[in-house]
Amino acid sequence: MSEKMLKFVNIDMQMPAKRTSEIRTEDFKEIYNRFVHDKAREQSSRCSQCGVPFCQIHCPLHNNIPDWLKLTAEGRLQEAHELAHSTNNMPEICGSICPQDRLCEGNCVIEKAGHGTVTIGSVEKYITDTAWEKGWIKPIKVLKEINQSVGIIGAGPAGLACAEELRKLGYKITIYDRYDRPGGLLIYGIPNFKLEKFTVERRTNLLKESGIKFKQDFEIGKDISFDELRKKHDAILIATGVYKPREINLPGSDLKNIFPAMEFLTASNRKGLGDKVKNFDNGTLNASSKDIIIIGGGDTGMDCVRTAIRQNAKSVKCLYRRDRENMPGSAREVYNAEEEGVEFIWLSHPKKFIGTSQISSVLVERNKLGKADSSGRKKPEPIPNSEFEMKADMVIKALGFDPEDLPKLFNSSDLSISTLGTIKINLKTMETNLPGVFAAGDIVRGASLVVWAIRDGRDATIQIKKYLEHKQRKDVEAA
Ligand SMILES: Cc1cc2nc3c(=O)[nH]c(=O)nc-3n(C[C@H](O)[C@H](O)[C@H](O)COP(=O)(O)OP(=O)(O)OC[C@H]3O[C@@H](n4cnc5c(N)ncnc54)[C@H](O)[C@@H]3O)c2cc1C
Ligand code: SF4
Description:
alpha/beta, 3 domains, binds iron/sulfur cluster
């Protein structure tokens, strides 16, 4: 064992410095500073180099974490970067936005032993940011292009990861996306203070330089039929994500200034990218000087509350029907939001939206927790006569997402879907019921995580390759 490791006994856990809440709420930049080199080496050296690394088991990509921590501690950063990239297409993005407290770091053995986790995500980001700066990350050079093409619907992390892996193998790839920019929710969902957009843009530019074609502003089912697209390519991957907002039907739901989360976040992200956004510029989707109420305690809700704070809202309150312990969002994000001035109204839900033409207040009812439901979490039950009114100029609904009706949008009624509306695949081959059509990411899993979308995109590559090789053999035999 290198003498450089197992330092958790003497060295305390330290995250990269977090900007103070007063300073960071003045802008949309990431809230953590980067590790300086010595700090990254020091923090990596805390790893206990477990024989059975639970961090690796609980990382959806099974990243070889102990080995790249050791390489970092030894100052062998180029090797650390190559190892990190061998299992992950976007290590710096995962390092920034994975909920590490629920994945790798939450299962770190020294964390369990009470010493504080190795700061795996921050080191992963440090290694890859360094690789970008040093010019170690290069476009793919295809030596022998294979005369078979794959059409990928959706330029989110699942589609991008699959495109990159297939291109490395030599296939011709076209990605189709209805947004004007590639990146999916990495661009228009997740705010800058968690993930600055240049990190997504340099990834997609790299793929363009690798010979992958991008067709933006191009919607399957509208600009081309799904059947026509299938005829253009030897295989198809559907990676369209989930975008139908879950609704809340209450008296007053149709009042003005009640918005779904993605409308609010997309407008804010577009402004950050320098776009003109009419409904933001005229104040409609801008939280500035307003009393804002956000409904929902998941990660999307946390992104909305913290965006509203940065837009200089007068007040930002979050209604969540259970308590802090039962909240679905990452504990780290809730803590960050509280630091920034968000007020959480635990154990509460909206009962009525009040106003004449636009919202002016919300009637809120208190809950208590009853017995655990099928999800294992305690069920919220309304407390009789506990209603109170809260002033609101704008309400944002962050209640989750469901899949759109893809068979209808694609005019492909034979595409098999589950009772939840997600695409049904053969779990071994990742193929749908339509031959040569594969699916990956949120559209299969339901709303999930970036790291799982990358994993699915990589797994789909293996299956698409098998399918294409088999197809080629059959074509040769038939000729
Ligand atoms: C606000 C918000 C914050 C989040 N924060 C985090 C986080 O911090 N960490 C984390 O790990 N995960 C987070 N997630 C979840 C994560 O973003 C998703 O799980 C992930 O992006 C799913 O990847 P995907 O490739 O399956 O789909 P998406 O990223 O949704 O990409 C799908 C793409 O398909 C395109 N598309 C859809 N239909 C069509 C069509 N008919 N024709 C052409 N193109 C089409 C869309 O335009 C989009 O670009 C967050 C999600 C949201 C909404
Ligand atoms: S990809 Fe995510 S879960 Fe895996 S090591 Fe990186 S931060 Fe942890």
